[in-house]
């Protein structure tokens, strides 16, 4: 008998909605903060429940790679599972996030708004159609920067989904690494043995 779907099994719709709406109106990118803070808050409260059940992006990869067969379903390379790679990627991600915040600060201080999405932290794509004004320039700048981060990480996830198992992104996802660190710190503080490693689907 097929298990009845829960409401959180359809959160992939939110991820798809987010990416689509950000294409037409960049200000929707602010909704991505939900995906940024919710995992951390849940991990502080206890466990990796967000990664295991509530991550719409992971669900989307499972759907595309599993049900639609867009994945080779190969094991992810051992080096991508290593602590050095995962922590290194987290550090790189946080550095790029800091640059995004710095650019937002510069626009807040009077610099020109950059109406572009930076793909893979390298390629600048003009995105002027997605913003017609109506918000403070720094608000729009943050939206362009944050959408760049979300789109880039989604593309990386799609590439590893195709090459390896559907949820291979989960192995080195920066948010997953951060929530794992939070869980480990909580376990150590309470005298436990540490949180388990993140999963890779």
Describe this structure in words.
This protein is mainly alpha-helical. The chain has one domain. The chain has 9 helices and 2 strands; from the N terminus they run ααααααββααα. The chain has a two-stranded antiparallel sheet with strand order 1-2. Strand 1 (116-119) and strand 2 (123-126) form a beta hairpin. Helix 2 packs parallel to helix 9 (174-189) and helix 6 packs across helix 9 (174-189). The two termini are 23 Å apart. The relative contact order is 0.19.
Summarize the biggest pleated sheet.
Answer: 2 strands, antiparallel
**What's the arrangement of strands in the largest beta sheet?**
1-2
Shape: globular
User: Strand percentage, roughly?
Assistant: under 5%
Count of separate DSSP helical elements: 9
Keywords:
201 residues, mainly alpha, two-stranded antiparallel sheet
List strands and helices in order, with pairings.
Blueprint: H1 12-24, H2 33-46, H3 49-54, H4 56-67, H5 78-81, H6 83-108, E1 116-119, E2 123-126, H7 137-163, H8 169-172, H9 174-189
Antiparallel strand pairs: 1-2
Helix pairs in contact: 1-4, 2-9, 4-7, 6-7, 6-9
Concise account of the structure shown:
The protein is 61% helix and 4% strand. The protein is mainly alpha-helical and 201 residues long. The protein has one domain (7-189).
């Amino acid at each position: 008998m097929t298990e009845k779907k829960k409401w959180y099994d359809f959160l992939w719709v939110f991820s798809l909605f987010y990416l689509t709406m950000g294409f037409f109106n960049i200000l929707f990118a602010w909704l991505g903060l939900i995906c940024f803070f919710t995992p951390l808050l849940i991990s502080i409260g206890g466990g990796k429940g967000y990664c295991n059940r509530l991550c719409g992006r992971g669900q989307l990869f499972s759907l595309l790679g599993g049900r639609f067969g867009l994945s080779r379903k190969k094991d992810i390379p051992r080096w991508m599972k290593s602590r050095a790679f995962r922590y290194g990627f987290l550090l790189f991600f946080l550095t790029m996030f800091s640059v995004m915040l710095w650019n937002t600060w510069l626009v807040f201080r009077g610099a020109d708004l950059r109406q572009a999405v930076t793909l893979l932290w390298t390629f600048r794509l003009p995105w002027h159609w997605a913003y017609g004004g109506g918000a403070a320039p720094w608000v729009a700048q943050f939206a362009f920067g944050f959408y760049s981060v979300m789109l880039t990480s989604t593309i990386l996830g799609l590439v590893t989904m195709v090459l390896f198992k559907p949820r291979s992104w989960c192995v080195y996802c920066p948010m997953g690494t951060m929530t794992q660190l939070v869980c480990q710190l909580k376990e150590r503080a309470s005298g436990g043995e540490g949180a388990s490693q993140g999963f890779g689907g």
